[in-house]
Every structure is written in structure tokens, then in C-alpha cells.
């Protein structure tokens, strides 16, 4: 599957023990009515228990300028939130990453164990879209084990 390009997201959770987050390249839109989205998380992930306990998450669609966040949230869990200048907290408790072109707050609608991963389905409750003010914000892509900037996008 590494030869299939995908957008890069970071999922964040406001857990009782502190903020939790991870990089996910499996984001998908599932339904318009109701607005449902999904992503996958490995059963071996250090974030799986926080997701199982969560009522809500924030899914950040990383821009081409955010390689550093993709790398940070794919490394050791202890390093992900150490730089407080990179994030803030919503009034609902979830961490939000600064400079992310689009993010969605979702309630956890369903968690489905499938093979060695869990499919997380979220009901979208809030959309933050900075691309309306800055349409040049291109997405960060993942392909063949590396992060890429798009070379051309039709606008």
C-alpha cells in the first residue's frame, strides 16, 4: 500500500493523563448525512487506549509546510507534545495544532476492531477551514514511505 498516495493527518485526543496524538494516513470521508469520517489505528499504537477512552478527537489535515508535525507525531509518544508553542487546547479539551489548514472535531461514533487495526468512525461536530482565507495551502502527502509536497494542484 505504500505505492498509493494519501493525505497526512494528525489525530489528537484530550486524555485524562494529558494530550495524546498520532500521525494517520488512513483518513476517509464516509458520509455526508450524517457527516461521518474515519481513520485507522494499529492495536500496537501507544495511543490506542486513549482513543478507546475518548469521547471526541480532533483530526488535523496537515499542509505541505507541516512535515515537522508529521514526523513529530509518528515518533515516541513522550516527544509529541513537548513543544507547547505548537498547540493549544479547545474549550472541549482536545489539543489543536497551530497552523493546520483544516481540522475537524469529531465525537467518537464507533470503534471497530478489524485485523490488527481499529477503524475509528467520527461524527463531525466542528470544522475549522483556513483554506477559505488562504486557498494556496496545499496538503501534505505520504507516498512510498516518505512525505511529499504536491508538485501541482488544480485550483
Automatic annotation (TrEMBL):
Query: A Pfam family matched by this chain, by name?
Result: Flavin_Reduct
Q: What class of enzyme is it?
A: oxidoreductase
Is Repeat set as a keyword in this record?
no
Q: Which GO terms describe its molecular function?
A: oxidoreductase activity
Q: Where is the Flavin reductase like domain?
A: 1-149
Gene3D superfamilies on file: Electron Transport, Fmn-binding Protein, Chain A
Keyword vocabulary terms for this entry? Oxidoreductase
- InterPro entries given in the database record: Flavin_Rdtase-like_dom, NADH-dep_flavin_reductase, Split_barrel_FMN-bd
Q: What is its EC number?
A: 1.-.-.-
Report the PANTHER family cross-referenced here: FLAVIN REDUCTASE (PTHR30466), FLAVIN-DEPENDENT MONOOXYGENASE, REDUCTASE SUBUNIT HSAB (PTHR30466:SF11)
Q: Which family does it belong to?
A: Belongs to the non-flavoprotein flavin reductase family.
The name under which this protein is listed is: Flavin reductase family protein
Source organism per entry reads: Nocardia halotolerans
Amino acid at each position: 500500500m505504500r505505492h498509493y498516495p494519501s493525505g497526512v493527518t494528525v489525530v489528537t485526543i484530550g486524555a485524562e493523563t494529558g494530550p495524546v496524538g498520532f500521525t494517520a494516513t488512513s483518513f476517509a470521508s464516509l458520509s455526508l448525512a450524517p457527516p461521518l469520517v474515519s481513520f485507522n489505528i494499529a492495536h500496537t499504537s501507544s495511543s490506542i487506549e486513549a482513543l478507546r477512552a475518548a469521547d471526541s478527537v480532533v483530526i488535523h489535515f496537515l499542509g505541505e509546510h507541516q512535515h515537522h508535525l508529521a514526523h513529530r507525531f509518528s515518533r515516541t509518544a513522550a516527544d509529541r507534545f513537548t513543544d507547547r508553542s505548537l498547540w493549544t487546547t479547545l474549550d472541549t479539551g482536545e489539543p489543536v495544532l497551530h497552523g493546520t489548514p483544516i481540522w475537524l472535531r469529531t465525537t467518537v461514533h464507533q470503534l471497530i476492531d478489524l485485523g490488527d487495526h481499529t477503524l475509528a468512525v467520527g461524527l463531525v461536530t466542528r470544522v475549522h477551514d483556513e483554506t477559505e482565507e488562504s486557498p494556496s495551502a496545499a496538503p501534505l502527502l505520504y507516498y512510498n514511505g516518505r512525505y511529499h509536497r504536491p508538485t501541482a494542484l488544480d485550483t
